Amino acid sequence: MILQAIADGLLTGAIVALGAIGVTFSLAILRFANFSHGDLLALGAYSALFLLALIGAGGEPLGPFSFGWPMVAALAGAMALAVAVSLLLDRFVYARLRRRSADPLTLVFASFGLALLLRSVLHLIFGPDPYTYSTEIQLAIRLPGGVRVMPDQMLVFALTALVLAALGWFLQRTRYGIAMRSVAENPVLAGVAGIDTTAIVRLTWAVATALAALAGVFYGITVQLRPEMGINLLLPLFTAAILGGVGSVGGAVVGALLIALVESLVITLWLPTGYRPLVPFVLLLAVLYLRPQGLFGVRGRVA
To answer: Could you tell me the pTM of the whole model?
Structure first.
């Protein structure tokens, strides 16, 4: 039972990590807590559902998985659509507030309003009922120790690891990644050095939203889709970013894995399932009290 809980926690934590990186980007580079991030995650998930229905969900599944090539195309389209929406929100809402020198609290309230708007639109279009991408039956894979995982979960975990590795390379080795880290450390000095901070802000929105959409689709593949999925995942996302340390991409990943592991173990061994949201909340309070800078956090730096 404990080994199964650990496996479930790792698989869930990998998905949370993708969304938590977007939160740490928002805190470190955009410099405000973006509470619409969870609903951008849900937007990506539902965009894939819409595109899947549009292009047709037929076709043979890929090997032991529950989906075929249409799902791959829908995933790419969903990421592009979510990024486009986030850039429009930045242009018509956040950019105007920045030009008026709005304080971070104003941006936070704006993100609350946009989160409600996105959630209401999803609820209006798709309704309150849960959805799944596929009804294909999968056979669980037996691992040592009596652990059972679905092929979809194994694929999602492997793809998440690849995406995180690619993101680390992007931040450390590419011109735009280094520019993002520079703006996070000192936006004024970065602007003096010739970095287009406006373009970097747009890039930050694009990368963070693409990762959120990817996390949303992966969550939909392994669990199910609901309009409230974004708000339900928001607390674990922020807790992971704060636990790992604001600005630390690796810390966000470690924080997400730790939160998911603790949550899975606590629910499996002690508390009923209905108390699941309590776990990240308690962890968040503990982190803010004992180590507010997080495990790997360095103020004003993305690494």
So the answer is: 0.91
How far is Cα 279 from Cα 32, in angstroms, rounded to an integer? Answer: 24
Q: Which residue has the tokens 């869930």?
A: 12
Q: Is residue 296 part of a domain?
A: no
Residue 118 belongs to a domain with what CATH number?
1.10.3470
DSSP string covering 154-165, please?
A: HHHHHHHHHHHH
Residue 191 falls inside a structural domain: yes
Residue 96: the pLDDT is: 93
pLDDT digit string, tens, across residues 111-129: 999 999 999 999 999 999 9
Domain membership of residue 13 (yes or no) is: yes
Residue 139 has what DSSP assignment? P
Structure tokens, 173:
């080795």
- Residue 262 burial (C-beta neighbours within 10 Å; 0-12, 13-18, 19+): middle
Spatial contact of 204 and 194, defined as CB atoms under 8 Å apart: no
Give the C-alpha separation, 45 to 176, whole Å.
27
Q: Is residue 297 domain-resident?
A: no
Determine the Cα–Cα distance for residues 18 and 3; give it in Å rounded to an integer.
24
Inter-helix orientation angle 249-269/278-290, to 10°: 130
Q: Residue 240 in contact with residue 296, Cβ under 8 Å?
A: no
Adjacent-strand bridge partners of 162: none
* Cα 242 from Cα 24, distance rounded (Å): 8
Task: Name the residue range of residue 64's domain.
Answer: 2-290
Q: What CA–CA distance (Å, rounded) separates 151 from 270? A: 28
* 127-172 pLDDT per residue, tens: 999 998 887 777 778 888 788 888 888 888 898 889 989 998 998 8
Q: What b/e string do you get for 146-159 counting C-beta neighbours within 10 Å, with b at 16 or more?
A: eeebbbbbebbbee
> Which comes out higher in pLDDT, residue 2 or 34?
34
Total structural domains in the chain?
1
